[in-house]
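Table S2 (text version). Query chain:
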Amino acid sequence: MAAIARRIDKLIKSALVPMLEPLGFSRKARHFWRRQPSVIAVINLQGNKWNEGDSGSFTLNFGVYFPELAKVLGAAVCDSPDEAECHVRERGGMLLDPPGDRWWELGPGRDEVAVAEEVSALVKERGLRWIDDHADCMRLSETLRAQRPVLRAAILHVSGQSTQAAALIEAHVRKEPLRAHPWLPLARAMGIEKQCKEWIAQAREPKF
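Corresponding structure-token output:
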């Protein structure tokens, strides 16, 4: 293991483990999970791919994963998801003021105690709040109206609003039938795959 990897792991143990484990988070390597029946919170410390020797940098990632959404979207359901598998994600630096893609540096000559304190404060004061703000499916539904329509439809479905979800699917596949493939796993889970394919076929028929 490179010296920079040991520095990062030491920071995790000193700055994050004492704070997160009492809050119900479990840890494996550089990943933390807080598992609840309907949602899993994820915190990940990511080392820079160019790290080597005794110096390098890392960033923080936050995510929220909904097992039921994974199921209806046709993905494998897991209880220890990677940050990349989360349905909503954010870089730690984007929670700072001003926001930006922040990487913290470690190595000789760096004040690693100050870095640990800064990272700990970010997780405690902003990261955990971000997770709590995104841990409710229905609150996410409106936020995702434009950016993530497939996910929004899945949220409507698992929240008992399948009629609205079906209407959203129909509107999108009729509008863009050549880009309808991402909607099919959700339509299948909802039991309307055949109908969805009919909407797509109708939308692709030549207009005279």
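Notes on Table S2: The chain has a mean pLDDT of 93. The first strand starts at residue 26 and ends at 28.
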